[in-house]
From TrEMBL:
Organism annotation: Rhadina sibilatrix
Entry GO MF terms: secondary active sulfate transmembrane transporter activity
Protein's name in the database: Sulfate transporter
Gene: Slc26a1
Cell compartments where the protein resides: Apical cell membrane
PANTHER family named in the record: SULFATE TRANSPORTER
Residue intervals of the STAS domain: 525-685
Stored Pfam families: STAS, Sulfate_transp
């Protein structure tokens, strides 16, 4: 049976591109309206907002997230190496911008531990290169918390010149300059990826890579917070191997631990973990999560203030947090050049986490998002706030789960959360002056429970897929032991190598017939399969291309127990010897046989088949090498009077074979070489003489 292919109209790609270009460049009032409606999705859904149905859930979830955001923002400033005020700015602006531009109804975009860590590593590196002391822990200046008398309280300002910057700037000033330049560049990359529709980049970050990356980064975050937990002052390690070096320094200086910080940390961790476990156990009975972090921060601040823990026990505290907004400032262009490369992995990770969470919750609640618009939204959540002394943002799973569990319906909840943060920014920030840093470290460490619990899933993951588990282990190890950026790169490269390795050495099998049926399966995997006389059926479960050509041939020769090249060489050698004997007039052959018996000797005993059927159902494509390989085995087996039949080829494989001349010039023998099922090929082979 030879099925007739449809005739496809050849598309003039040049004309199609020109038509699309003309359509894109045309400007009509309706098109302009649609553009703004698409760019600001809030214009589409806000007029349809069902106040009576949605408002209570949005207000409730917004208040809860706002209450959670404040302590987390203050805590994550430790990871970013910046003052708490900048974390609050970040949380405020990200929620407002995503409300205007985001397409997800549920994700919570704002400060995220992993992104804060990546920002902090770049900030620390640049501070070291600029000559600042990362361990400068000057006692916090007292004051009324206003911007005017706290702008540069952390360090003494001095003149310096770096990459063209000649200004009077202190450590805090330079740190936020680096962070805003990094954030701006990350946002630019994300917007460019949206313009050029490069969202497919996220496909190369598999679940195993992302989980391994998050777990490895969580170990780094935990390590960085230990010194605050026990109140020791050690050098902030930079570069590769930061985790190991930090732990060595911790054990060397463990004798200097601050007893007040150790006791406070122990109490806070016990309270936080207990509250989290109880919240998880009874979450179906609770209408909203317990604001444990806020309670801990309030109580700890009161105890620290009235107990004078900083003055009496030298416990490190947050210091003055200014109120109000610092005037906007354009990020330094020269600093952008320094951090341009660092911004790329930051942009990719931020986008991938945001889009993956958006897609997950859109699927759960039966609506759709636009991944490209999400790229624009998260990009502008970085670009615009970078002018207002904010750093990079992303969607966070934990806060998003809290939003959905407290009745969130739309991004109105994000606006409510932003208002809570604004209240803190304008009035309440100075109240956190006496908050101990060890309390913030406890909040960060307890928030890592989800990522660290991935270690418990390793046996189950290994049972499901060993290769994915290996990818997870390699990515996690590289992220923790080398650096987060290198770990992400290693994970991506290693996962790709695993895919390549799978196609280079795929499963191969000889098939047997299921009794009394027209179906065939792997002879080694199933019982009671019958061998087809005089026919070998070979299956190759991967595309056939240049990288696995040799493995294809070796597997074929091994399973059929016949290498046609060796057999042809043996026959030639035998024929040469026979001719020599005949020239000498010896009518007996070298093996002692008569001439009449020579023909029988030429046919080797191990050749027990006259047809080879190649099951191509798993071969998704052929490259030039693949086509030449099939032509080669066709020729080699033909020399041994063995026919090669192809079965179950998809249309793209057939087209490749046609273009490669496998069926001859006029395709006359095609119906005798190509079959749409293995059974048809077997029946044809049985009918051959």
């Amino acid at each position: 049976l030879l099925m007739e292919r449809k005739t496809h109209v050849k598309i003039n790609r040049k004309e199609v591109m020109l038509a699309k270009l003309r359509k894109s460049c045309s400007c009509t009032p309706q098109k302009l309206k649609n553009f703004f409606m698409d760019f600001f999705p809030v214009l589409r859904w806000l007029p349809k907002y069902r106040i009576k149905e949605y408002i209570w859930g949005d207000v409730m979830s917004g208040l809860v997230i706002g209450i959670i955001l404040v302590p987390q923002a203050i805590a994550y400033s430790l990871l970013a190496g910046l003052k708490p005020i900048y974390s609050l700015y970040t949380s405020f602006f990200a929620n407002i911008i995503y409300f205007l531009m985001g397409t997800s109804r549920h994700v919570s975009v704002g400060i995220f531990s992993l992104i804060s860590l990546m920002v902090g590593q770049v900030v620390d590196r640049e501070l070291l290169l600029a000559g600042f002391d990362l361990n400068d822990d000057v006692p916090p200046a007292s004051g009324d918390g206003s911007l005017q008398n706290d702008n540069l309280s952390n360090t003494t300002a001095f003149n310096f010149t770096i990459v063209g910057i000649n200004a009077e700037c202190g450590k805090e000033c330079y740190a936020i300059g680096i962070a805003t330049a990094l954030t701006f560049m990350a946002g630019v990359y994300q917007v460019l990826m949206g313009i050029f529709r490069l969202g497919f980049v996220s496909m190369y970050l598999s679940e195993s890579v992302l989980d391994g990356f998050a777990t490895g980064a969580s170990l780094t975050i935990l390590t960085a917070q230990v010194k605050y937990l026990i109140g020791i002052k050690i050098p902030r390690s930079q570069g590769h191997g930061m985790l190991v070096i930090t732990w060595i320094n911790i054990f060397r200086n463990i004798s200097q631990a601050n007893l007040c910080d150790v006791i406070t940390s122990a109490i806070c961790i016990v309270v936080l973990v207990t509250a989290k476990e109880l919240g998880d156990r009874y979450k179906h009975k609770l209408k909203f999560p317990l604001p444990t972090e806020l309670v801990v921060i309030v109580v700890a601040t009161l105890v620290s203030h009235y107990g004078k823990l900083n003055e009496v026990y030298a416990s490190s505290v947050s210091g003055a947090i200014p109120t109000g907004f610092i005037p906007p400032k354009v990020p330094e262009f020269n600093l952008m050049l320094r951090v341009a490369l660092d911004a790329l992995p930051l942009a990719i990770v931020s986008f991938v986490f945001t889009v993956s969470l958006s897609e997950m919750f859109a699927k759960k609640y039966a609506y759709t998002i636009r991944a490209n618009q999400e790229m624009f939204a998260v990009g502008f959540c970085n670009i615009i706030p970078s002018f207002f002394h904010s750093f990079a943002t992303s969607a966070a799973l934990a806060k998003t789960l809290v939003k959905t569990s407290t009745g969130c319906q739309t991004q109105i909840s994000g606006v409510i959360s932003a208002m809570v943060v604004l209240l803190v920014l304008l009035f309440l920030a100075p109240l956190f002056y006496s908050l101990q840093k060890c309390v913030l470290a406890c909040i960060i460490i307890v928030s890592l429970r989800g990522a660290l619990r991935k270690f418990r899933d390793v046996p189950a993951r290994y049972h499901v897929n060993k290769v994915d588990t290996l990818v997870w282990v390699v990515t996690m190890s590289a992220s923790a032991l080398v650096s987060t950026e290198i770990g992400l790169l290693v994970g991506i490269v290693f996962s790709m190598l695993c895919i390549i390795a799978r196609t280079q050495r795929p499963r191969t099998a000889l098939l047997g017939q299921i009794q009394d049926t027209s179906f065939y399966e792997d002879d080694l995997e199933y019982e009671n399969l019958s061998t087809v006389p005089k026919v070998k059926i070979f299956r190759f479960e991967a595309p056939l291309y240049y990288a696995n050509r040799n493995y294809f041939l070796k597997s074929l020769y091994r399973l059929t127990n016949l290498d046609p090249n060796l057999e042809a060489a043996r026959r030639k050698k035998y024929e040469k010897k026979e001719k020599q004997h005949l020239k000498k007039g010896n009518h007996r052959t070298a093996n002692g046989l008569g001439i009449g018996e020579t023909t029988l000797q030429l046919v080797p005993k191990q050749i027990d088949f006259q047809a080879l059927v190649v099951d191509c159902s798993s071969i998704s494509f052929l490259d030039t090498t693949g086509v030449n390989t099939l032509k080669e085995i066709l020729k080699d087996y033909k020399n041994l009077n063995i026919s090669v039949l192809l079965a179950c080829c998809n249309p793209s494989v057939i087209d490749s074979l046609k273009r490669g001349g496998y069926f001859g010039k006029d395709f006359g023998c095609m119906q005798e070489m190509l079959f749409y099922s293995i059974h048809n090929a077997v029946l044809f082979a049985k009918d051959q003489k």
